[in-house]
Amino acid sequence: MPIARECGCSLGTVRAAVRRLHLEDLAPHVRPPAPPCASAENLRTLYVDQAMSLESIAKGVGHEPTKVRADLSRFGIRPYRRPGFRETDGAWAD
């Protein structure tokens, strides 16, 4: 963490900059991003076209919903609120 300390930022900020600037080869201690749980095309089909929930997709691909959400973001697929979902209590409206 010496670089982060010198720059006055967090270790996460330094790691993000290393990835953004493609300096991974110069910094072997930085963990590369995990491979996606499914292809962009498959995720788009499941999430957008078939309107499956994050939980359903996660169960189908064998990963956690948070991983599916991260991969949607990685591929530029914006998560959206489903019609009928009540955020106040987390139930589906009739």
Describe the protein's architecture and organization.
By secondary structure, the chain is mainly alpha-helical. It folds into 2 domains: 33 residues, no CATH class; 47 residues. It is built from 5 helices and 2 strands. β1 and β2 form a beta hairpin. The N and C termini lie far apart (52 Å).
Helix and strand topology:
Blueprint: H1 2-7, H2 11-20, H3 40-49, H4 54-61, H5 65-74, E1 85-86, E2 91-92
Antiparallel strand pairs: 1-2
Keywords:
about 90 residues, mainly alpha, 2 domains, about 5% strand
- Our Rg estimate from Cα atoms comes to 18 Å
Largest beta-sheet characterization:
2 strands, antiparallel
In percent, how helical is the residue content?
40-55%
Domain count: 2
Overall SS class: mainly alpha
The end-to-end span amounts to 52 Å
Anisotropy-based shape: elongated
Concise summary:
With 94 residues, the chain is mainly alpha-helical.
